[in-house]
Structure formats: C-alpha cells, structure tokens
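Hello again,

I reread your note about wanting to compare the complex against the isolated chains. To keep things tidy I'm splitting this into two emails, and this first one only covers the full assembly. Below are the input lines as submitted, including protein chains and any nucleic acid or small-molecule components. They are followed by the predicted structure of everything together. The single-chain runs will come separately.
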Amino acid sequence: MSLKKFAAATALLGAAWAAQPAFAQDITLEFVVWNYALDTIQDNVKKFEEANPGIKVNVTDYTWPDYQDSLVLRFRGGTQTDVLYGGQDWLPAWASAGWLAPLEEIAPEGMIDTLTKEMAGFALSDVTYGEKVYGLPYYADTISFLYNKNLLDEHGIAVPQSWEDVMAASEKLKAAGIDRPIVYEYNQELPNFFDAFVAQVYGRGGELFDKDLNAVFDQPDNAAYKHLEWLREAFEKELVQPENHESNIITTMNTGKHAFTIVYNYVLAAMNNAGEQPLAGQFALAPMPGEAHSTLGFAKFYAVTATTAQDPQRAEAAWKFINFMAGQPYDVAKRWAVENGLGFGQLPLLQDPEVKEAWGKWVDMDVLAKQIENARPGTWTEWTAVWSAYFRPLLASAIVGEIPVEQAMRDGAERWNMLREQFASR
Amino acid sequence: MWTIRRYPLLWLLPALLPVAAFIVYPVAYAFWTSLHGVMLLFPGEPFVGLDNYKRVLSSGYFRTAFLNSVVFMALAAPLVVILGVSVALFLQRRFAGSMIVRSVVLLPWVLPGAISAVLWIWVFHPSFGIINGLLEWAGAINAPIQWLNTPTLAFACVLVAHIWTQIPFAVVLTMAALAAINAETLEAATIDCRSGWKRFWHVIFPEIKAMVVVLIVYNALVAFTTYDLVYAMTGGGPGTATTLLAFQIWRESFAMYDFGAGSALAFVMVAVAGLLIVLITRALPSDLFEERP
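Full-complex prediction:
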C-alpha cells in the first residue's frame, strides 16, 4: 500500500468514526432520587433505556430525611450528578448557588414554553426561579385535610368547615371515647412539618410574609400566630396523636380510632387502598378548614445540574431523560398518578380517563379539583430551607408547650429577617 | 546503615502517612473551617476569626444542647457501668442456657444505631408499642402515654435506648476483668464471707476497679458525643428536649448549611469532652492504676 493510499484510508476511517451518532458510545447518567417507590423508578428507567440505546441511567437513592444534606454534599464535593429530584423549598438556594441549570439551556427551543403552558399554576411557580424554569414536575400535590366518614356519621358530626369546628368535633369525639381524634405528622426534621403548617395557615386565608418578604407571622392577629395557638391548645387538650411519618399515619388512621389528619393528598390513596388497608373507603378529602379553604400546593421535580448542562453530550442525554419522565405525552406522570395516587402538575392528565377512573376509587374528584384550584404556592426564597430548619424546632417546641407561642414566633421572625438581610448582602 | 535508630521518622512514615491522611488532615481542615465563613450557599470562604465560636456559644440552641448533653452523660455513664457490671457478674455463673444468654446480651452491641433506634421507636409507639400495650393490659393506664412526644419522657426514652446499646460492651470488658481474678482468691472469699455484697465490695471490686474506671470514662465520652439514636428517634425534639451537642453540630452543618458554625461547635465539644476526662480522672483515687504488690 502506498503512503497516499494509507493516508486516504486513515482519513476515511477517521471521518467514519466522527460521523457516528452522538450516543454510539454509552453515556451513563447519574440520577439521584429519594427512595419512594424505587421499583417503579427503576422500571421507568429501564423503559427509558430501551427507548434510548446508548444512554444508561444509574439510580442513587437516599432516604427522604437525608436527601437534602446528601445532595448538598454531592454538589459541594463535585460528585457526578446529572439529573435529580428537586423540591420547591430547595430550588432558590440550589439555583442561586449555581448548582442547577435552567432547562432552557438544554431543551430544544420552544419546548419549555410548550410544557409550561400545560402546567398547574402552583407547580409552575415551584419549578421557577428568577423567571427561569429549572424543572419538570415529578409530581405536584396539595396538603389535604382528611377525615373518617364513618366515624363522623356515627357520631353525627358534620364535616368541619373551620378550625373551631375541628376543635369542637374533636372534643365531642373524645368525650365519646375516641381518645385522640386528630393524627398529626409531628417530626421537626422533615420539611413537610413546616409545609403542613403553612397549608393550615392558608386554610385560614393567612400569610406568613408580606410582599416585601418581611416576616409578619409574629403579630398576634396573624393567622399563623393564631393557628400555632390552636395547635398548642389541641395538643394540650390531648386531642392529637402525633406520628413521626406519613406511613405511620396510614396505619394509625386505619385503626378506626382517629377522625382527622392533615397530610399529602397521595396518603389518602394509600389509606383507601382496599388491597392493603382494613378501613379502605372510609376516608375522604375535605376542603382545608378556615375562611379561605385554601391550601399549599407544591411540586417536586426533575432538575439537571449546571455541570451536566455544560457538557453538550450529557446535557442532551439529560434532557431526553427528563422529557421522558415528565414531558409529553406524560406517560410516566400518568403512571405515578394511576398506580401510586401521586398528584401531577401536568393539567391535561386531569381529563385523562384512566386517571379519572383510578382516582375516583379513592377521592371525590370534584372536591379535589376545587382544592387544586384554591391551592397556592409557598414563599420559597434562597434562605427558606435554612430558615425552616431553624424554625421547625421552635414550632415543635411551641406545639408541645416547651416554649410560649409568642417566643417561637418572635425568634422565628427575627431569624427570617436576619437571613433575608444576610442573603441580600452576600 | 539503614537502621531504625538512624532514620526513625523514615521507618515510621508508612504508619504516619495514613494517620496524617485520615486524622490530622480532617481535623486540621475542620479547624480551618471553624475560623472561616463556610456557608455553603454563599460564595467565598472569608476568614472570620473566632466569630463562629462566638456565634455558636451565644446561641440559645447551644445552651440547651450543652445542658442536655451534660445531663445525658451524667445519667448514662454510671447507669451503663452499674448495669454492665451487674449483668457481667450474673453471666459469670454457670446455669442452663448461660451460653445462649451471653450471646443474646451481646446482640444490642452488634446492631447499628439506626436499627436500634427504629426498634425503640416501635417499643415506645403510643398506639402499637409494647410498653403502652403492657401498661394498658395491666390496667396501669387508661390512655396511651406519648413517650416520644412529651419532652421529659422523650429524653428518658433516648437515654434508655442509649443505655441498652452500650451495656454489652461494658459486660464484655467486665467479664474479661472478672476472668483475670485468681480463682483461689474467689474461693477463699466464698469461704470467709457469706455476704455476697461484702464479697463483691471487698474482694471483687478492687480487682476490677481499673476496668470500671476505664468504662466510666469511655461511656462518659460516648454519651457526650452520641448522635445516631437522637437523629433517628426524635430528631432532637420535641423542640429541643433531646437535642445533644453532636446532633446540634449536624443541624448547624447540614440543615443550616453553615459548616463554619458546625466545625466551631465540634471543637467546642472536643474541648469540653477533654476537660471532662481530666475532671473525671482527677476525681478518681490516685492508686488506681498502680501495680499491686
């Protein structure tokens, strides 16, 4: 072979190699999740891998209480992380720290607009930071007031409309031998301990912060202040059965010895699961008590890290993956809704016959639709997650009477205002 | 030529390098962190001197966590040792199934803290827990006791769980000390003294005294720095009822992203623990570790 021929053959081979599809060589995406329904997650991943040869997805899971710390350490330590579960309360901090990438950077043009047009308002708000969209909903839900229909019927009690009604009904039930009618998720280490409190304050039509993000919940006429006093009173009267996790609430409510609880909506699906729970079918959703009947709506979402977005090949694979998990035609979101009762931020699923049929078995869809309509997003700032970690023990202390309500609210408000200034001047 | 005497450091290097990598460097880095503003959400890590120390020492959470830790240690260390020695004395006897009992007693020691915590959460569960179940069955209570949701009771529950996890180690060490006692001495004591308590106090205890002291110091340190049970059983709550210093370090660092404050608190804890060891060992009889004639 002459030198010329050899050079031509080498050039041809090189060109052929360069012209191969982008994913001829496997990419392994690192996908980090909390460990809810891991089997379903793995199955969804498997389906994605089958549909996208050349892209592998490695799933790493953490428990829910450990999730936030583990992710922060991964970000800080530079551990390869491509796609992850994000939360509305962490987004401002993580995005402002430069750990997450806006999806516009990796999605095909116009795609984000198309998807956000079909997103519920509170879900869109929760995946947005600085007017940029950072995530697509894994699920979006509301925190709900649930009750045992049979127990209320048996004792001739109407569905409570206000928190005063809840107190009166609970006292009546206690007098009738139902020892602790309210089951409450009491775990100061869980972010949802604060979220549930906000949902109840929203039910009263209250706000914790003003438009300039000043804390106003320390004012005695504020709905949050009043509600903390209400919780303190309910605990003092021994009307509340505290539980440290929603999974225990499902079991406890199914003993038939408790009438009310305030939890994520999907817990109702589990409580009414006829295959697993003895009292399935007895539990129903009511509008959150209070003048406004509003509640907290929130979204957990798939997000992509900033380091991944900077690598074109990984960014493309990451987009394909989250679009598969949360994009049109919303098959994965629908699966979560049908099989697990998880709420969704993708509005077209509300009209989906399969979703309607599945959900009709455990919830009154009309009541739920009204609740979703009334749901409001939380106030999520760069410092909310840090502040919430400080405030939750205060909240817990005040609820059990370890410190006065006034002290909890004052300390909480001072800390909020201090952090706000600290973050403004960073 | 290449003798150990001539180049001692060189010969020690293979052993010193891992120590430096895994102990000296992390401790030095933690100390550096405690003197800098390492707030994960903020850019930069400016030198702040002793600000982190001032901040953690003046916070309400520190006072509560410190007091809780001291009380926890003051109760846990002696109780673990007293119960450990008692169990060891009991297990020294030969009886039917004694080997099985010895193995079972060691079980809490091999369980990870988180597993022990989950186990105790269910023991103390108000609706499904065995304690409330037994009390209700015995007619001692009409309504379930909220063990982990009542501040004072929650503290006691964590203390019980901690003691349960630490007793086996005390048993093992005490049994080792007991096994070293001369059998003839014990036999003579049995003949000379009918009172079991007097036999223990005048013959057995002097023989195991040094081990008991080691156990007290060790358990004081373990109790003062305990973290896993608190994290998994109560999350430091209700409120701050079970917040111990080690747990507060985690909260400052990981829940509030403030590694500067968390590191400062860690060094404060190390200093307090060091001081406590000195105080405990000084309070002990001076002849404790002297060779017996």
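For quick reference: Chain A touches chain B at residues 65, 68-69, 72-73, 76, 93, 96-97, 179, 186-189, 238, 241-242, 244, 248, 251-252, 255, 257, 382-383, 386, 389-390, 393-394, 396-400, 402-403, 411, 423, 426 (CB under 8 Å).

B.
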